[in-house]
Amino acid sequence: MEDAVVVKDLTRVFGDFVAVDRVSFSVKRGEIFGFLGPNGAGKSTTIRMLNGILMPTSGQAHVLGFDIYTQVDRIKENIGYMSQKFSLYDDLKVIENIEFYGGIYQVAKQKRQQRYEWALRMAGLTDKREAITGALAVGWKQRLALGCALLHEPQVLFLDEPTSGVDPKSRRDFWDLIGEIADRGTTVFVTTHYMDEAEHCDRLGLIYRARLITIGTPEELKYGSMPGTVVEVEASDPVRAADLVRNVNGVLEAAVFGANLHVVVRDKKEGIRTISRVLAGAAIEVTSIRPIEPSLEDVFVSLIRSEDLADENGARDAAGS
Amino acid sequence: MKIRRIRAVTRKEWKQIIRDTRSLMLSLGIPMLLIVLFSWALKLDVSNIKTLVLDRDKTSTSRAYIERFAHIEYFSIIGYTDKYSEIIGCIDAGEVKAAIVIPKGFGADLKAGRGAEVQLIADGTDPLTAQVLVGYVSAITAVFSQEYILQALSRAGVTVGKTPLDAQVRVWFNPELESKNFIIPGLIAVIMMVIAGLLTSLTIAREWERGTMEQLISTPVKVSELLIGKLIPYVELGLIDFVLALLVGTLIFGVPLKGSILLLFVMTIVFLVGAMSLGLLISIVAKKQVLASQMAILITFLPAFIMSGFVFPISNMPLVLKAITYLVSARYFVTILKGIFLKGVGVSILWAEGILLLVFTGVILMAALRIFKKEL
């Protein structure tokens, strides 16, 4: 079966600002695809173009085989979308919002009642069906929005930062829900800027400054896309230690993570030896130094750093020529 | 187009209208308030004009002349004076609107057949009243002088019997020349325009502002389904307003409704759909509620008030303005309402206005459907 989403060189320009720059990727059917990146990187712009509510400047994209330029209506019939900002009607009751979207999506008459009850149950709002939506807590609103976006049993679900502004407990519950939805065969395309959430995804794309930097499963990203090894150093003065280590030959990257220091070294053994020597020379006490499995955050910090470096070099080259 | 989706939108809009109690009360209350205020305040009838009399003649003839003013409701003689300067003072202070000055020798001149003069001083700061006033005084004076001639003739032995030429004036359609009779039908048209424009000008802009539009445009709902679904509840609300205005106008203010009620409602629906579509169009273009409501006032209220022929007669306008009035749908509706209310005329007379109204409505609705894009 063809991929649920196929994107090639998708670009969107707002005036002088390139929001999405020649992005290409594809999303397999039934997977949870995470679009990870800092705010303003182009996540929402991409998701909106795929939903048919924002026209691309150039490039191609197909959702479920339908062209985003010419078959927008077909796409909209088969997808569910939850925008970043809560966008149901605050002045309607919970059940009225569900009924409205049930009508808009033309849920078949014999299925309607069952779908409405399903949405209420899924959102945990069965007891609050008559409550005014505006009075609900953010976590509940999000689940209601999710319920409304799923009333017509779409094949692809687009979620734009579904957990922003939601407390940690609700976030975890929400991701459990997303997992259940994907288990039933729905393709989920989700954007987030929370690194920990990225671990829930089957595959991830990292978007940074309008460009897709890398794509792969969390494991592939952790072990494949990082040049070198991450070494965790417990030192008495991590901030000063980071500054000292950063300029040493063979060290690619050094950053403070909590109370510790994460250093990316080109060679594991060689690197550990060098770090120990440099820190000992500066009279910094090292309690432990060991190679660790890189977190996604390590990966992204390192990738973003090298991307920035490449940009700077590019700019310098351009200025020099 | 799917009826079910239109119905879903309509139901949702009605729920939102009803739940927003304050706006609902305003949209039902403001028309009533406007009708009551305008009907009382915009009284164009001239009556009980405060008048001061300076009688320098003080003969039975001059008293007989003054007597003529005392018995008509148009005038109210509030006093007599001996000094011309007092007249100036009273007019300056706004205490009187008019003064009648009878010169010395008035009676004697008339008797001698030399011809006499009276002076009317009118406060021209209120030109409408002054104009009517001059007309009344001229008429009263003409009748007085005619009767004087007839008396003189009969004394001389000539019998004319009756007034030789008597203009029997009949004012049709509004026999008492009551201004409320023509103000209220016109006012209903203007109010409908304002309410329609204001109500719908917010509805799309609000969804953009609150972000609910982003969700809506990601669904398969068609532009036509969305706009028609939004129009229906507001047209219904507009019709409720219209019925209320109709009841207040006819039952409380006693404006006659001579024509067909069916025709009245058909025309009103056509007009409301057009006016509401114009509001939607404004809302689509503005995308912000504040801007939309300002535009609505500029585009619907002002032209409807100034250029519909409601206050200022179109026939007196300069050519350019006259041409522009053809774009103001309230113009046709004012004519239609006055025709149905006061003249009781039907389709055979009002067809042209009806067609133009239909064209206006069609064009605006099409424009709204065309311009609205399901895109961010």
What would the keywords be for this entry?
heterodimer; A: 321 residues; alpha/beta; 11 helices; B: 376 residues; abc type-2 transporter like fold; 6% strand; elongated
Plain-language structure description:
The complex is a heterodimer of chains A (321) and B (376). With 321 residues, chain A is an alpha/beta fold. Chain A is built from eleven helices and 14 strands. Chain A has helices at residues 43-51, 72-78, 94-104, 109-123, 138-150, 168-183, 195-198, 218-224, 238-246, 268-281, 296-320, and strands at 5-14, 17-27, 32-36, 58-63, 66-67, 79-82, 156-160, 187-192, 203-208, 211-216, 229-235, 251-257, 260-265, 286-292. In chain A, the strands form three sheets. A six-stranded mixed beta sheet of chain A has the order 6-7-8-3-9-10, with helices on both faces. A four-stranded antiparallel beta sheet of chain A has the order 2-1-4-5, with helices on one face. In chain A, strands 12-13-11-14 form a four-stranded antiparallel beta sheet, with helices on one face. In chain A, helix 3 (94-104) crosses helix 4 (109-123), helix 3 (94-104) runs parallel beside helix 5 (138-150) and helix 4 (109-123) packs antiparallel against helix 5. Chain A starts with a strand and ends with a helix. The mean pLDDT of chain A is 89. The longest helix of chain B has 32 residues, at 179-210. The radius of gyration of chain B is 29 Å and the shape is elongated. Chain B is 67% helix and 6% strand. The two termini of chain B are 22 Å apart. A four-stranded mixed beta sheet of chain B has the order 2-1-3-4, with helices on both faces. Chain B has helices at 3-19, 21-41, 60-70, 84-92, 106-111, 127-155, 179-210, 212-217, 223-252, 261-286, 289-306, 319-325, 329-343, 347-371, and strands spanning 49-55, 75-81, 98-102, 119-122. Chain B is of the alpha/beta class. Chain B has 14 helices and four strands. In chain B, helix 7 packs antiparallel against helix 9 (223-252), helix 7 (179-210) packs antiparallel against helix 11 and helix 10 (261-286) runs antiparallel to helix 13 (329-343). Chain B has two domains: 3-43 and 178-371, no CATH class; 49-155, 3-Layer(aba) Sandwich (abc type-2 transporter like fold). The A-B interface holds A 48, 51-55, 72-73, 76-77, 79, 81-83, 85-92, 96, 99-106, 145, 148 and B 2, 4-5, 7-9, 11-12, 15-16, 19-20, 210-221, 374-376.
